[in-house]
Amino acid sequence: MALKPRRLLRWRIVPRDDAGMFDERQATFPTQRRPWRNPRKRDGGLLVGAAIGVGRAATAAERGGADFLLALNAGRLRVRGATSLASMLPLADSNAYTLDFARAEILRRVAIPVFFGACAFDPQLDIGAFVRDLADEGFAGVANFPTVTHLGGRFRAALEAAGLGYSREVALLKAAKREGLAAFGYAKTRDEVDALIGAAADIVCVNFGWNAGGPAGFDEWVGLDEAAERARQLVRRIRRASPGTICVIEGGPIVTPEQMYQVCAQAGADGYVGGSTLDRLPFELAVMQSTSAFKTAAVVGQRALADKAGDARMPGFGGLVGQSAAFRELMATIGRVAANDLPVLIVGEAGSGKSMAARAIHAAGPRRRGPVIVVDGGADPAETELKLFGREASDGHKRRIAAIEAADTTVIVERFERLSAGLQLRIAAWLESGNFERGGGASVRGLARLIGMTSSDPLRLAAEGALREDLLARFLPARVDVPSLRDRLDDVPLIARHVLASLPGQAPTLDAEAYRALLRHAWPGNQRELRAVLERCALRARGGGISAAAIEEAIAGAAAPAPADPEDERGWIVEGLRRHRFRRGAAAAYLGLSRKTLYNKMRRYGIDG
C-alpha cells in the first residue's frame, strides 16, 4: 500500500528544504512489505545485521549474506561524512530523514527484512499513526534508534522525567508489535533489557557504545573481555525470561570478525549487528589503499616505461592483498625495512607469503630496478656457494659472477636455516666486513642486499646450533614476521578474489555461502593451500560459479605431504596437531593418516596430547 502525503502528516511535518529530507513525489511508489520471520540459523551459524544508510551498502550487505538490515539515520550521516554520534543531535527530523532514503534506496531493492530506526524524542509524535505508516511502507520491523541508551547523567535523567526517555522507546516498540511488526531493541543495562522483554521484543541488541577503529572511531570504553562478560550476563538474563528472543551484540571494541566471534562465543549471543564496521571502516580503508596504489602506480609506471627496453624489471606486489590489522602491520613493517639497507630475515609458516613479502621489500626499496636472485639454502652447498660467491676463470671454467656482488641486486635465500656451517660463516664474514673472496680470486666488495627466509623460530634454531648466533644477530634488527592466514581470516575474501582474477580465462564467482565456507576453514597450509583449493574449484567450475560444496570438497581432498626427511616426522606431527589445537581427528585427516597410525606415532615420539 502506498503512503499518501495527507496520511504522512498525521505524525510529522513534511520538510521541503534543499537538504532533501523527503520528496513527496516518492510517496506514490508502492512497496511490498516483507514480513519478519525468525532467521535463526539451523546450522548454528551467527546472524549478521547491517545498519546502513545508503542503497549501495544495503545491496552489498545482502549479497554478502546479511540476514536483515537496519535503516538508521546514523548510517546516512556516515556516508555524508559525519560520525555516528551526529545521529543524536537535532540536525533534522530524524524519522523523515530516515524514511526518505530507506523508501527511495532500500525497500524496493532488497529481499531481506528491513527495520526502521525510529526516533521517539519528539513529544508531538503520534506513535500509533507513525507505526501504522511504517507498516504500510513495507518495513519488517522497528528499532529504537536514535536511543537514549547512548546518553547519561543529568540530561538522560531529565529526558526520563519528561517522559521522553527509554519508556517512550519501549512504547514505540510495543506499538510496532500491535501492528504486526517485529521489534528490535537496543539496550545496555539490566533495566533496559527487562523493559524490552516486557515489550516482547523479537531482537535485543546488547550495545557497547560507538564503534572504535579508524580515524573517526571512538576510544574503546570497554575491552573485549569486559564486553564479553557484560554481554554474557545480559544474554543469560534474556534467555531465562524469554528463550525465543534473539540476542545480538554491537559496537564498542568489536571491529573485526575475529573480535565479533570472540565476544559472541563467550556471551552465547546469536549474532552481530555492524554499522561503522560494515560501511565506514571498509570504505575508509579501501579508499586509502586504492589511492595509495594509484599513487604508487604512477611512480612505478614512469620507471617501467624508462626500463621497457632493458633487462631490469620491477617485480610487482602480486598476492599481497588484505585489510586486516595483521596485514596492515605487515605492510608497515615492509615499508620500514625496505627504506634501509640492512639484511632482512622473514619468518613465517610455510605457504604464508614469505616470498611475496621478500619481493615486495625489493620492489619498494632502492634496488627495485635490479634483478632478484633466489637461492635455496637446502640445496647442494657447493652449488649454493658458487651461486652466492662466484669464481674466477680457471681450468677451463668460465668466470662466474657472484650473486652478492651487484649493487642493484637482491638475493633471497629460501630455507635460510639449512645453509651449511661453512656458508653461514662466509656470509657472516661478508656482512661484517663488506668484502668476500670470489672462488680462486682476490677480495671483492659485495653490494647486494640479502633477504633470508625461514619457517622456524630463528632464536630456537640458534639455541640448537642450527644457525650461527653472530649471523642471526645481523638479521634480527630487520626481522619481518608474516602472519598466518588463520590470524587474518578477514583477508580471505580479498585474497580469494585476487587469486581467481589472476587465473586465465573468465574468473569464476563465489557466492555468499562459498565465502562462508572459506572463512570456516583454519587454512593450516596458509595462502598456498587457499590458492590450491581455489584453482581446483575454478578448474571444475569451467568459468561458472563456485559453490560452498565445491570449496568444502576441495578442502577435504587436501592433506599435508609427509616430510621427505624421516628425522622431521616428529616435528611434522607436532605441527599438524598444533595447527588443529590437538584435535586428533582433524590432525590425522590433515596429515593423511588414520587415527590409529597417528596415535601410534605420538606414542613412539613421546608426544603428549
Broad CATH class of the domain at 314-481: Alpha Beta
Shape: elongated
What is the CATH superfamily of the domain at 314-481?
A: P-loop containing nucleotide triphosphate hydrolases
What is the count of β-strands?
17
Largest sheet: 8 strands, parallel, barrel
Kindly, what is the distance between the CA atoms of the first and last residues, rounded to a whole number of angstroms?
64 Å
Q: How confident overall, as mean pLDDT?
A: 79
Percent range of helical residues: 40-55%
What is the beta-strand fraction? 5-15%
The strand line-up of the biggest sheet is 1-2-3-4-5-6-7-8
Quaternary structure annotation: single chain
The stretches of 5 or more residues where confidence is low (pLDDT under 50) are 1-31, 214-220, 296-316
Q: What would you call the structural class?
A: alpha/beta
Radius of gyration: 30 Å
Number of helices: 24
CATH architecture of the domain at 314-481: 3-Layer(aba) Sandwich
CATH fold-level label of the domain at 314-481: Rossmann fold
What is the structure about, briefly put?
By secondary structure, the chain is of the alpha/beta class. The chain is built from 24 helices and 17 strands. A hairpin with a 5-residue loop joins strand 12 (435-437) and strand 13 (443-445).
